[in-house]
Design goal:
heterodimer, A: 111 residues, mainly beta, five-stranded antiparallel β-sheet, 57% strand, B: mainly beta, seven-stranded mixed β-sheet, four-stranded antiparallel β-sheet
Chain lengths: 111, 113
């Protein structure tokens, strides 16, 4: 059973702070990792993906991957109230194009 | 450039009924996947269609079936509805050459009474 674990939160951060969202996965054969943002009542929106160990930056977002520790994270710099949403981690195992999603972490950015 | 569209947006059914949900993929995309998202949970993969064939299937009973048309649009059918089928049903489209990059539609919220 492939599992993707996320703390459901809510994670509350002040405006302008760095929000750190974490995700662990059970399948060592996992090869690609995705972060989605989902506003309440809306559908998931792809933020970024990462395949290799290390950091990948895109604007205010940084994805970090550590395959040895089976850990992927998303950092949001200069958090804004508009970043308040649920963040879903999705993991693709080797040879499969079907993602396994975590249950998501609720982020609240307060002014 | 039209994104993924789904219809209807909301639906109320009673136990035992049947429902059909529809999806049009993003322009240029040829692969459609369907997901079920219960409240407070992540999306669960139902199945994926490519070239009008079901290519992969998740852990869902045969009551869940689908179809893909030549124009790549797709339908999800659920028979003998149960209360537990109440959820947000998401369609996601992708290019078969880049299947991992999926774009989700707005979803259909199904309530079974």
């Amino acid at each position: 059973q492939k599992e993707v674990e996320q703390n459901s939160g809510p994670l509350s951060v002040p405006e302008g702070a760095i929000a750190s969202l974490n995700c662990t996965y059970s399948d060592r054969g996992s090869q690609s990792f995705f972060w989605y943002r989902q506003y309440s009542g809306k559908s998931p929106e792809l933020i970024m993906f990462i395949y290799s160990n290390g950091d990948k930056e895109d604007g205010r977002f940084t994805a970090q991957l550590n395959k040895a520790s089976q850990y992927v994270s998303l950092l949001i710099r200069d958090s804004q109230p508009s970043d308040s949403a649920t963040y879903l981690c999705a993991v693709h195992s080797g040879g499969s194009y079907i993602p396994t999603f975590g249950r998501g972490t609720s982020l609240i950015v307060h002014p | 450039d039209a994104g993924v569209t789904q219809s209807p947006t909301h639906l109320i059914k009673t136990r035992g009924q049947q429902v059909t949900l529809r999806c049009s993929p993003k322009s240029g995309h040829d692969t459609v996947s369907w997901y079920q998202q219960a409240l407070g949970q992540g999306p669960q993969f139902i199945f994926q269609y490519y070239e009008e064939e079901e290519r992969q299937r998740g852990n869902f009973p045969d009551r869940f079936s689908g179809h893909q048309f030549p124009n790549y649009s797709s339908e999800l059918n659920v028979n003998a509805l149960l209360l537990g089928d109440s959820a947000l049903y998401l369609c996601a489209s992708s290019l078969t050459s880049h299947q991992e990059t999926q774009y989700f539609g707005p979803g259909t919220r199904l309530l079974v009474l």
